[in-house]
């Protein structure tokens, strides 16, 4: 029985860091956003143009009012995932609460999920091989991002501060195992914060 390949994306924009590095961005959180009116809310209240997000996994990076950056991934017309800083999460939560009675929406903080971020010359190949992903999409917009579920890890690709990065989002136990495997493959763990 053949399994269906999990197609992943590669950025055509951004530079590739010379060193293979692994970060644990402590200030990033995951919020899952769902409901029958999530897309209208994102269009009208956040002013997001979601027309390019036609396939599950496609995403975009942007700024909330106040300059808080975020990445949002499309799962369906009624489900999205935000990856953002704690301060941005608070700002988004406040906005959703303000419009709670106007839209059929729900914002859920995923406290069960942690994030690791890697970059470097071997990052793309390592992500593809480790998570059984098949390269297939080319992303040419620097603000676009892409994420796919592989087993218990949501794997993303994005450009931050002009550099290509990959995020691994999973429960802490699973993420710790992946971090150990990546360290064995030559990814130096850094205590520095990953770029926002």
From TrEMBL:
InterPro entries: TrmE/GcvT-like (IPR027266). This is Aminomethyltransferase folate-binding domain-containing protein. It comes from Pseudoalteromonas rubra.
């Amino acid at each position: 029985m053949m399994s269906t390949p999990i197609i992943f994306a590669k950025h055509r924009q951004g530079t590739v860091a010379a060193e293979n590095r692994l970060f644990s961005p402590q200030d990033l959180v995951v919020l899952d956003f769902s409901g029958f009116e999530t897309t209208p809310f994102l269009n009208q209240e956040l002013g997001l143009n979601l027309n390019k997000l036609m396939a599950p996994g496609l995403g975009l990076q942007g700024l909330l009012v106040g300059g808080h950056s975020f990445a949002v991934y499309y799962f369906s017309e009624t489900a999205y995932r935000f990856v953002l800083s704690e301060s941005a999460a608070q700002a988004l939560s406040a906005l959703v609460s303000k419009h709670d009675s106007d839209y059929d929406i729900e914002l859920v903080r995923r406290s069960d999920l942690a994030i690791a971020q890697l970059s470097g010359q071997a990052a793309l190949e390592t992500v593809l091989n480790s998570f059984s992903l098949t390269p297939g999409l080319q992303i040419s917009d620097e603000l676009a991002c892409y994420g796919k579920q592989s087993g218990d890890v949501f794997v993303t690709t994005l450009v931050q501060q002009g550099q290509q990065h990959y995020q691994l989002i999973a429960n802490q136990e699973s993420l710790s195992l992946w971090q150990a495997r990546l360290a064995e493959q030559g990814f130096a763990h850094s205590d520095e914060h990953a770029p926002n």
